[in-house]
Design brief:
This protein has 13 helices and seven strands. The chain binds glycine.
Length: 373
């Protein structure tokens, strides 16, 4: 049972705890690539992993307020180490948005670093180059026989394209983002606001072949983090384009999320998975939904904004009271996230994107409006 109330003092207290925790953990994590926390310690990935933006993103989020030199140095070093991946080309995929929005775009927005702008534009060019003209989608991964696969997560990569168009004063990148977002609207998001994870197209003709369950329970289920990618991704596309259809879609997904979220717990990893004693939670889905709901609350008329802001506050209260760890025995902030339940990969542990979205949502409650996305 939650007991607190989200007010100014609560937000100040939580933000202070986030900053204090990151000050402490950054001394051990340094410029590595934390992904998931195992037995209280963040395990580091290689420099090509798709989540590598979230740790520097978290540091930049805090740096924007306190200009902590250590945080800047770590974030810059992580970004520099990712050059091998950017220039190596072969390990790049559609997640260049996750990777370089929170590193290079963030650094460029905060410090105006030219080299970071170039990295961001190179990543955006790669993303644009993955567009399949016939099917009007951005290819997801590089796997064998996956030339026609697109996934819901890619909506969070589109802001890199919107940013590139704004930065170069060239609409090409935005045209591709809009074409992909329209395909997602048509082929992924169901009338009830739930979403497919993967949709496969014929890469030659562009015709839809089938939907797949992917990281969800089944083809017709509702993977919780996929729901959050759809919610936040659609409202971000609205923010950059002003197209009402994206805001309407974000609201539809939000209503599905709100109707299905437990009042006093994190969601299970899939809203339609059978609930059994070992069914895993996914707090990262909740944190991403919360920051997305706050974005919707800013986009809609005041008369309806409270629906979304109250739902976001409810989520953040539940996360903070039941799932956050401020202790020294755990490096992660948000416990009980699940990376990939069908593969039993990192189940019910802190994962770096959960920490990032949680902190981003709290920053928004403090009034932060500029995003790195
Ligand atoms: N983008 C992959 C995931 O959400 O796990």
């Amino acid at each position: 049972m939650t007991t607190g109330v989200v007010n100014e003092a609560w937000v100040k207290d939580v933000w202070g705890k986030i900053v204090a925790k990151v000050e402490r953990t950054s001394k051990r994590i340094g410029d590595s690539f934390p992904y998931a926390s195992v037995n209280g310690t963040y395990y580091s990935e290689s420099n090509d992993w798709w989540t590598n933006g979230f740790w520097p993103g978290l540091l930049w989020l805090i740096y924007k307020e306190n200009e902590h030199a250590d945080f800047r140095n770590i974030a810059v070093s992580v970004e520099n180490q990712m050059d091998e991946t950017l220039l190596g080309y072969e390990k790049l995929h559609h997640d260049v948005g996750f990777m370089w929005s929170l590193t290079s775009v963030a650094q460029y927005k905060l410090l105006g670093t030219e080299a970071s702008k170039i990295r961001g534009l190179m990543a955006a060019s790669h993303l644009a180059g993955r567009f399949n003209l016939k099917g009007q989608f951005i290819r997801a991964w590089n796997g064998e026989n996956q030339q026609g696969w697109a996934i819901i997560d890619c909506l969070l990569n589109l802001p890199l394209l919107y940013w590139a168009s704004e930065t170069t004063n060239d609409p090409r990148f935005r045209h591709i983002a809009v074409a992909h977002a329209d395909t997602v609207l048509r082929e992924f998001i169901r009338p009830d606001g739930s979403s497919h994870h993967i949709v496969c197209f014929d890469p030659e003709t562009g015709e839809r072949i089938e939907a797949r369950g992917g990281q969800g329970y089944s083809q017709d289920s509702a993977w919780a983090r996929g729901t959050s990618w759809a919610l936040y991704g659609m409202v971000l596309s609205y923010k950059y384009t002003g197209h009402q259809r994206y805001l309407d879609a974000a609201k539809r997904v939000a209503h599905f999320y709100i109707a299905n979220m437990p009042a006093d717990a994190a969601p299970y990893w899939d809203f339609r998975a059978p609930v059994e004693p070992e069914t895993a939670f996914d707090t990262s889905a909740a944190a991403c939904a919360a920051t997305g709901l706050l974005e919707i609350s800013r986009a809609v008329p005041e008369s309806e904004a409270y629906i979304y802001s109250e739902a976001a506050k409810r989520i953040l209260l539940v996360l903070t009271e039941q799932y956050v760890s401020w202790g020294e025995d755990e490096e992660g902030i948000l416990t009980m996230a699940t990376a990939n339940f069908p593969k039993r990969a990192y189940v019910n542990v802190p994962i770096i994107y959960g920490d990032y979205y949680y902190a981003e949502a709290i920053a928004k409650l403090r009034g932060r409006t500029e995003l790195f996305w």
